[in-house]
Design brief:
The complex is a heterodimer of chains A (369) and B (401). Chain A has 369 residues and is an all-alpha fold. Chain A is built from 14 helices and two strands; from the N terminus they run βαααααααααααααβα. Chain A has a domain of 224 residues. Chain A has a two-stranded antiparallel ribbon. In chain A, α1 packs antiparallel against α13 and α3 crosses α12. The longest helix of chain A is centred in the middle third of the chain and has 30 residues. The model of chain A has no long low-confidence stretch (mean pLDDT 84). Classes of the chains: A mainly alpha (369), B alpha/beta (401).
Chain lengths: 369, 401
């Protein structure tokens, strides 16, 4: 079948796996990707809407960090996304595909909200927040523990299992938001304890989000130390690299899986607590708002490094807030902000390809001679 | 390892520095922009133009702002959750002087933001809590849409009469179907007034109501309307915001009395007429009050007279003859007070006329009825607060779920 004419034909380009490249180079590639994304998004904006891309980008920056309040909102957005991302990271590092963070955080948030509804007149404010913390952590952990046990004991598929647990959590929240809805039958709980503010995180330095941000900063550092410098962290890494190696060197794999998923779920529970007690003061099926899924990307792009995850969540939240500002400022449909965010995320993920692979073009004939 | 950490630290500090520069740039920009000082209106809508309910608000908002020459920002597809609070706060940040939200369950979030921003006016359609909340910068608005539905009901009754006269079914079989969103007073008040309008010209009429549990669910609404048609309903009306019910009617060839606006373009063979609230008069009032610094009433109720309650053009191809005249006549009588929609002589509950009824006008946790609303022989709807509170299940209407 071979054709003699193309016997020595070399394709125009081929893809070669790169050896590890220095950090500055990979950062350069990523920065280039973001730049390219902004240019493409600008062109798309121009051709679809006829708006001046420079105006659009200045609106984007203004929408994300234009005022002091917006900077706080941005930091708060980063904190919430980062918190969920931190939560999924230990499990991912172990190659346990926990895509149930949405549900785990939702269960944590639901526990906090139910405490606010049922216990606000029975406990002192400080005690109430303590109880909310404990119940949120436990609820999130239990929601993660169930698939972990099934995985450890019967080797069930954790991806499907955790995914399905999300839908159960959403239905449970929807059930409770009907039960405690105000007004009755509306299916919406509304602001809980609007007057007494029982169970609300207090403002610190006049900033209602300060506590959220502080908690997530502390968690980031703790998790970094845990993963990098503790025995547990080492065990997680080994189980992730090779389960057989882990068994060979005497690591109890089942124990590590269960322990790590409890940690993952507990952190999700804290994220839910921050969303309910520190942000929304209510619970609804959209409280977590897809962060459980976005977190997967944040964690992956940062190569499971908690400090790098700050950067990736900064990027995503910055562009998300910016894109929302664009669509309301220029009276575009909401889908437009999704398109812009989609383009940017596409390029960010695409840049990973160029970090791991390089493209070799066919050399010119003369050169070869 | 150390090298990576150093680079990381460098990048982090660069990002922080960039954030600060952007911040300063943003802060510096603020006073330079003249439009920051201009009067601005913010709008929060539950859906976008694809929902007939929201489209009705959006069109009116654009018209009012254009007429008064004020800037506006619209936020669409804002769910009834903490997202509403986020949206309202962002509108405050964008310099809005008055902020309006259009959906019932936006209320608690609007109140929360209103508490924190006394310098901004917050207005909310269909809400119930302004008159008890005691906030100077928070108000509710609605319209006496029950009058519009009553008039649309007359068109429905006349169509039934025409079909009875043509021998399509007997007077006893004159059954209407109604697709409602939720069993709230707003919906009950709406379908009861529609029913009473039809009954005023077609005394034998009965009605079945099917709730969908959603303000906008095209598939569910279509399914509910089809089920009603299959159970023998001769005419359909709806209080839900998608094209579900009208298009089911068009498919089945069953006449439809619509809501929120004309559906004639999509349903030329079945659309009779539609009642709707024209929000333009309210938006103009709201903007002018906020601009002049005058107080906005806790409750503002638009009427037939203010031009807030209107009917679309009648589809003469479907409507019975004389419909326009009958509606015009009834409208004049409603305005003059000669007739009342909820005249206690025209309906019964459990076989007996009502002489007294306590309605839940002041929203409280236990939904306790608190105000006597029947006087001078009729139910005083939308007088003690703008949002409807007629929630009586009268005889002749069957609730299917």
């Amino acid at each position: 079948m071979s054709k003699p004419a193309v016997k020595n034909h070399e394709p125009l380009f081929h893809v070669v796996k790169r050896p590890a490249i220095p950090t500055w180079q990979s950062l350069l590639i990523r920065a280039g990707a973001i730049l390219a994304a902004l240019i493409v998004a600008g062109l798309v904006t121009f051709f679809l809407t006829g708006l001046n891309p420079i105006d659009v980008y200045s609106t984007m920056i203004d929408g994300a960090i234009g005022t002091e309040k917006r900077i706080w909102n941005l930091l708060q957005g980063i904190a919430l996304l980062l918190c969920v991302s931190l939560a999924v990271t230990p499990a991912f590092k172990m190659k346990f595909w926990n895509i149930g963070a949405e549900g785990q955080a939702l269960m944590g948030g639901l526990a906090a909200a139910l405490c606010m509804i049922l216990l606000s007149d029975k406990l002192s404010p400080a005690l109430l927040i303590l109880v909310m913390f404990i119940t949120s952590v436990v609820s999130g952990a239990v929601w993660a523990l169930i698939p972990a046990i099934f995985k450890a004991k019967w080797n069930t598929n954790e991806t499907l299992f955790t995914l399905m647990m999300n839908y159960i959590a959403i239905q449970i929240v929807s059930c409770f938001s009907f039960k405690y809805s105000v007004p009755k039958g509306s299916g919406s709980i509304g602001i809980i304890n609007s007057i007494s503010k029982a169970g609300w995180f207090p403002s610190v330095f006049d900033q209602k989000y300060f506590l959220n941000i502080l908690i997530v900063v502390i968690l980031t550092v703790l998790l970094y130390v845990y993963l990098k410098h503790s025995k547990h962290g080492y065990e997680i890494a080994v189980v992730g690299e090779s389960e057989n190696t882990a068994k060979y060197i005497g690591i109890n794999v089942k124990k590590v899986i269960i322990r790590t998923m409890i940690l993952s779920g507990a952190l999700c529970g804290i994220a839910g607590l921050l969303m309910v007690a520190g942000t929304d003061h209510t619970i609804a099926t959209d409280t977590v708002g897809g962060r459980g899924f976005t977190a997967i990307m944040v964690s992956w792009l940062a190569k499971f490094n908690p400090i790098m995850m700050f950067l990736t969540s900064f990027l995503l939240v910055f562009f998300e807030k910016g894109a929302i500002a664009i669509s309301s400022e220029f009276d575009l449909n909401n889908s437009f902000s999704d398109i812009i965010t989609g383009i940017i995320i596409f390029f960010i993920i695409g840049s990973e390809f160029f970090i791991n692979y390089s493209i070799k073009f066919r050399e010119k004939e003369e050169k070869r001679k | 390892m150390k090298k990576t950490a150093k680079i990381l630290a460098l990048v982090l500090s660069l990002i922080l520095a960039a954030t600060c520069v952007f911040c300063l740039a943003g802060c510096n920009k603020t006073p330079e922009k003249p439009e920051e000082d201009a009067f601005k209106v913010g709008f929060i809508f539950l859906h976008d133009e694809n929902s007939t309910y929201d489209k009705n608000f959006i069109v009116a908002a654009e018209a009012a702002c254009k007429e008064l020459g004020v800037e506006y920002i619209m936020k669409k597809n804002i769910p009834e959750s903490a997202k509403c609070q986020e949206a309202a706060e962002d509108l405050v940040e964008s310099g809005c002087d008055v902020i309006f939200a259009d959906s019932f369950n936006h209320e608690s979030y609007m109140i929360e933001v209103a508490k924190n921003h006394p310098e901004v006016q917050f207005c909310h359609a269909t809400g119930t809590r302004a008159h008890t909340e005691g906030l100077a910068n928070y108000s509710n608005a609605f319209a006496s849409i029950y009058e519009g539905r009553y008039l649309a009901g007359i068109a429905a009754g006349m169509k039934l009469n025409e079909m009875i006269a043509a021998g399509k079914f007997t007077a006893e079989e004159a059954k209407m179907g109604y697709v409602g969103a939720y069993p709230y007073a707003e919906v009950k008040s709406g379908y009861t007034s529609f029913f009473l309008g039809a009954k005023s010209v077609c005394p034998s009429v009965t009605m079945e109501v099917q709730f969908t549990g959603s303000w906008y669910d095209e598939a569910l609404e279509k399914e509910a309307a089809t089920a009603l048609i299959n159970s023998g309903c001769k005419l359909i009306s709806q209080h839900a915001d998608s094209m579900g019910a009208p298009s089911a009617c068009e498919n089945a060839g069953i006449p439809n009395v619509s809501y929120n606006g004309s559906t004639q373009a999509a349903c030329p063979n079945t659309f009779i007429v539609s009642s709707r609230i024209d929000w333009t008069p309210y938006f103009k009032h709201m903007i002018e009050c906020a601009k002049n610094g005058t107080d906005i009433e806790d409750d503002w109720t638009g009427t037939l007279e203010t031009g807030s309650v209107v009917l679309t053009d009648i589809n003469t191809a479907v409507a019975a003859e004389g419909t326009a005249e009958a509606i015009a006549d009834a409208k004049a009588k409603l305005i003059s007070g000669e007739i009342h929609v909820f005249d206690t002589a025209t309906f019964t509950k459990d076989g007996a006329p009502l002489a007294s009824y306590l309605a839940d006008v002041d929203t409280d946790a236990n939904f306790e009825a608190d105000t006597e609303v029947i006087a001078n022989g009729y139910f005083h709807e939308s007088e003690y607060r703008s949002a409807p509170y007629f929630d009586i299940d009268i005889d002749g209407i069957t609730l299917l779920n």
